[in-house]
């Protein structure tokens, strides 16, 4: 049985000094050392054990822990393998934490200092500069959701200039403060929307909250006539939000029940029942039947527009009244989602007639839909209108002369938030 008395040394000696290989229990009994000695000092390779179960094993120079070694802390369960200087973690090494974190990089007297790679318990990796154990300076991180950031850090927060590439394809490049978009920055959302301007706490400073179609409130037209619509994204003060581009807008036409025929009993929806069409619920609070748009032909009449003191967003057949309206946005979260279509569209009556300009994106807060043309009535509608079972229909000539104008309605839309701020 080994003798474990404090102050006891068992091993090689030279000139009455511990020299060679030996085992020594210190007088306070908290430390004991087993390894190489030189002229009474720990020197070479050895293992220093602590009473609580911690230990160091590695190189010693003149009685001090200097060089490469391995350290285990019984209280925390952490381990370190790397360089030491006078007992401190100093130089390059690998620290493995009990909670699953791993750091490989530079240390300066016990703290992370310099360049290193930190992998947290969730698998997120940061590689870059450290100062006093914190991410500080230039560095890049890959988050567990697939987002990647590369840029400046201050005391564990993204601050300065940085580039964020989101897993969904969105990209932000610009200024950061307190781990959020702050200052001048540009985002290319995965939907194609681009915002290039000022940010405050993760949100765009200048955001559009209504869609405005410039021009007269009501436009009279007939199938084959071409019209252009100038649309702007504005704030509450009516300023165009030029810092936003790429928002997808879509234009469509529809026939509102009761506007075409002479009396309610001759409802167009009876014709739709004959041809098997179902009405569509509009965001304006009424039902309608979609009506096809087409590309203009060389014989198309010149665009014609007639302003009205009062008017409704009404489309009739064959006379169609097109209208515009301002829309207040619906609130959404700051985490960017896919863009919503800002004008509804339906493809039910196209019959191979298409309008190449019905969907397009804004540029610097505005866009123009050029040469929007109503197609002639489709064959199934014409047949239904002339069917013996169909209700009596007012002749196109009489309809063309009608000028029914009722109160205008707002066109609802959705304001997409571009705050794609990702937290660590």
Features:
424 residues; mainly beta; 19-stranded antiparallel sheet; 4-stranded antiparallel sheet; 3 helices; 30 strands; 5% helix; 45% strand; rod-shaped; disordered C terminus
Molecular structure report:
Helix 1 packs across helix 2. The chain contains three helices and 30 strands. A hairpin with a 2-residue loop joins strand 17 (194-200) and strand 18 (203-204). It is rod-shaped. The chain is mostly beta strands. The chain has a 19-stranded antiparallel beta sheet that branches. It starts with 8 loop residues before the first strand and ends in a 23-residue tail after the last helix.
> How would you sum up the global shape?
rod-shaped
What does the main sheet amount to? Answer: 19 strands, antiparallel
The mean pLDDT is 76
Task: Specify Rg, calculated over alpha carbons.
Answer: 38 Å
Strand content: 35-45%
| Straight-line N-to-C gap | 55 Å
Poorly predicted regions are: 260-266, 300-356, 390-424
Helix content: under 10%
What would you call the structural class?
A: mainly beta
How many helices? The count is: 3
Strand segment count: 30
Break the fold down into its secondary structure elements and pairings:
Elements: E1 9-14, E2 17-25, E3 31-38, E4 41-50, E5 55-61, E6 64-72, E7 79-85, E8 88-96, E9 102-108, E10 111-119, E11 125-131, E12 134-142, E13 148-154, E14 157-165, E15 171-177, E16 180-188, E17 194-200, E18 203-204, E19 210-213, E20 218-221, E21 226-234, E22 244-245, E23 248-250, E24 253-256, H1 268-275, E25 280-281, E26 287-291, E27 293-294, E28 320-323, E29 359-361, E30 366-374, H2 379-385, H3 396-401
Antiparallel strand pairs: 1-2, 2-3, 3-4, 4-5, 5-6, 6-7, 7-8, 8-9, 9-10, 10-11, 11-12, 12-13, 13-14, 14-15, 15-16, 16-17, 17-18, 17-22, 19-21, 20-28, 21-30, 23-29, 24-26, 25-26, 27-30
């Amino acid at each position: 049985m080994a003798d474990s008395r404090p102050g006891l040394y068992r091993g090689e000696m030279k000139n009455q000094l511990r020299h060679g290989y030996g085992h020594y229990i210190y007088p306070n009994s908290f430390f004991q050392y087993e390894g190489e000695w030189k002229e009474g000092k720990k020197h070479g390779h050895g293992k220093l054990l602590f009473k609580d179960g911690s230990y160091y094993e590695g190189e010693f120079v003149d009685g001090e822990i200097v060089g490469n070694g391995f350290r285990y802390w019984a209280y925390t369960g952490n381990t370190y393998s790397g360089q030491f200087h006078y007992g401190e973690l100093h130089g390059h090494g690998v620290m493995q934490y009990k909670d699953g974190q791993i750091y490989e990089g530079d240390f300066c007297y016990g703290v992370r200092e310099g360049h290193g790679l930190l992998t947290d318990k969730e698998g997120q990796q940061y590689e870059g500069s450290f100062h006093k154990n914190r991410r500080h300076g230039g560095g890049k991180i890959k988050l567990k959701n697939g987002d990647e950031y590369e840029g400046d850090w201050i005391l564990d927060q993204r601050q300065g200039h940085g580039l964020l590439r989101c897993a969904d394809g969105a990209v932000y490049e610009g200024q950061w403060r307190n781990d959020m978009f702050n200052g001048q920055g540009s985002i290319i959302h995965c939907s194609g929307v681009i915002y290039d301007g000022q940010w405050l706490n993760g949100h765009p400073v200048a955001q559009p909250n209504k869609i405005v179609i410039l021009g007269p409130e009501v436009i009279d037209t007939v199938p084959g006539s071409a019209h252009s619509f100038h649309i702007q994204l504005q704030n509450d003060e009516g300023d165009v939000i030029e810092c936003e581009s790429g928002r997808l807008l879509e234009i469509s036409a529809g026939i509102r029940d009761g506007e075409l025929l002479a009396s309610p009993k001759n409802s167009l929806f009876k014709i739709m029942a004959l041809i098997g069409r179902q009405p569509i619920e509009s965001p304006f609070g009424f039902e309608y039947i979609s009506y096809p748009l087409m590309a203009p032909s060389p014989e198309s009449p010149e665009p014609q527009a007639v302003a009205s003191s009062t008017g409704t967003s009404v489309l009739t057949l064959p006379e169609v009244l097109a209208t515009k309206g301002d829309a207040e946005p619906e609130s959404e979260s700051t985490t960017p989602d896919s863009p919503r279509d800002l004008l509804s569209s339906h493809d039910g009556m196209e019959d191979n007639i298409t309008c190449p300009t019905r969907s397009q994106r804004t540029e610097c807060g505005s866009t123009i839909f050029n040469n929007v043309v109503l197609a002639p009535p489709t064959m199934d509608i014409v047949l239904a209108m002339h069917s013996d079972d169909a209700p009596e229909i007012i002749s196109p000539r009489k309809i063309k002369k009608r000028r029914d104008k009722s109160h205008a309605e707002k066109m609802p839309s959705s304001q997409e938030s571009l705050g794609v701020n990702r937290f660590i």
